[in-house]
Specification:
- With 54 residues, this protein is an all-alpha fold.
- It is built from 2 helices and no strands.
- The longest helix has 28 residues, at 26-53.
- The chain is rod-shaped.
- The chain starts with a helix and ends with a helix.
Length: 54
């Protein structure tokens, strides 16, 4: 996964988390937090790959 896709997943997760908080939907809020973490992990992997390619 590319760094851009990881960042997009973080944004999507943030939106989901905020929507869950606004609608008092704890499950959606938790899914959003999980998605943000997943996006950060993908972004970190992309950074690491880029460093080792050099």
């Amino acid at each position: 996964m590319s760094k851009a896709k990881g960042k997009a997943k973080q944004v999507k997760g943030k939106l989901k988390e905020t929507t869950g908080r606004a609608t008092d939907d704890k499950r959606m809020e938790a899914e959003g937090r999980a998605e943000k973490v997943e996006g950060k992990a993908h972004e970190a992997v992309a950074d690491a790959k880029k460093k080792f390619e050099r």
